[in-house]
Write a structure and sequence with these properties.
This protein is an alpha+beta fold and 209 residues long. The protein has a domain of 116 residues: Arc Repressor Mutant, subunit A, CATH 1.10.10. 52% of the residues lie in helices and 7% in strands. Helix 6 packs antiparallel against helix 7. The longest helix is centred in the C-terminal third of the chain and has 39 residues. This is DH200=94 genomic scaffold, scaffold_1544. InterPro entries: HSF_DNA-bd (IPR000232), WH-like_DNA-bd_sf (IPR036388), WH_DNA-bd_sf (IPR036390). GO terms for molecular function: DNA-binding transcription factor activity; RNA polymerase II cis-regulatory region sequence-specific DNA binding. Keywords: Coiled coil, DNA-binding, Nucleus, Phosphoprotein, Stress response, Transcription, Transcription regulation.
Length: 209
């Protein structure tokens, strides 16, 4: 009778071990005492996978694309990006919400003259690196604004969102004016250099220092 009990217990242990080895946890390294924190393979967030697919799409490279270095990406035309691209990947076409989400995942704007964004783990040909990007802890001012904008969901045109979009439009308009002023200044500088090279065209009594 003792032998029967022993054999029964042995069979139960073998069966249980086989069941554990067949589970996803064991396949990922949890069997044999492996640490769950060090062995678990974390999939990249869906938002990052979508952004990566958007950036690498050659059909929309005139709207959004990788930079020449492949370590950042550029939104060349935010209006077309919102109208033609966002809705194909998300349940909204709101550019302000998209920017908020980028900030939430640690992206930063690195160029004043254009909409160029960078994250050290978001690079061309390195899609596997996306799993290293972590979402920032909710509770920051940026995360609060993203919540108001209804990130990745049906967006309501709240007063906060309208103010944000208005500020973005004003910002873009100011950038255009600054670029015009720079061009005007550069033209004046070129004309002045040209006059200095040709003093003979001026009145003889006129001296250029």
């Amino acid at each position: 009778m003792g032998t029967d009990v022993s054999e029964s217990n042995s069979n139960a242990i073998v069966t249980a071990a086989a069941a554990v080895s067949a589970t996803p946890l064991a396949k990922e390294g949890y069997a044999n005492g492996a640490s769950s924190s060090s062995s678990r393979v974390r999939a990249p967030p869906p938002f990052l996978l979508k952004v990566y697919d958007i950036v690498k799409n050659p059909e929309t490279e005139s709207i959004i694309s990788w930079s020449s270095s492949g370590t950042s990406f550029i939104v060349w035309d935010p209006h077309r990006f919102a109208a033609e691209v966002l809705g194909k990947y998300f349940r909204h076409n709101n550019f302000a919400s998209f920017i908020c989400q980028l900030n939430t995942y640690g992206f930063r704007k690195i160029n004043w003259d254009r909409l160029e964004f960078q994250n050290a783990w978001f690079q061309k040909g390195k899609k596997s690196w996306l799993k290293k990007i972590k979402r920032r802890i909710q509770g920051t001012q940026n995360a609060h604004l993203c919540k108001l904008l209804g990130t990745e969901g049906q967006l309501s045109l709240s007063g906060e969102q309208k103010k944000f979009e208005s500020l973005m439009q004003e910002h873009d308009a100011l950038k255009v004016e600054i670029m015009k002023l720079k061009d005007r200044e550069e033209n004046q500088r070129r004309k002045w250099k040209s006059l200095r090279k040709k003093p003979s065209v001026l009145h003889p009594s006129c001296k250029i220092c």
